[in-house]
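[Q] Does anyone have a clean structure-token version of this?
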Amino acid sequence: MAAKLAMVFFSMILVNNYVLVQFLGICPFLGVSKKLDSAVGMSAAVIFVMALATSATWPVYNYILEPNGLGYLQTIVFILIIAVLVQLVEIAMKKFMPPLYKALGVYLPLITTNCAVLGVTLSVLEDCESFIEALVYALGAGVGFMVAMVLFSGVRRRLEDANPPKCFEGLPITLVAASITSLSFMGFGGVIENIFAGH
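[A] Here you go.
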């Protein structure tokens, strides 16, 4: 069981990274990755929301919606739950971490509509057999989001010192760099499965 949970956790970080492999949550990835501190702060908020949202939505779906034939309402219900959790995070951040709250700006409320968070809550219903596995899946996806943000923050710092052609300045060179960064994660395909294959 522990080996399976470890495989789920590390595969969500490297092999099935929600940002660099599945291309979800691109808005904050491009918007908040300019500075390392704001990238880490945003990632921590996303990890917290992903874990909380999954721990709330998984039981709601399996014990309330599905038994009562209301599974088709999952997306609407999940978005409402995520919105409430993001509001709580926003209020807590505004009170206890004002500098980080200002640095994240408009991107913090955007976690509500962050498709990576919603994607995780929907994916665990199909991919996970138990609540613990769903929680580990969500934490792995959140840590994978942080890895992508921190990694790309370093890439963007190097881009500032670069001198690209005029037509590539700004967003185009950022998108090219993001695509090359995502290509590097393709190299992890099969690695995690082989590491845990013997367990």
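[Q] Thanks! Anything notable?
[A] Residues 131-161 form the longest helix (31 residues).
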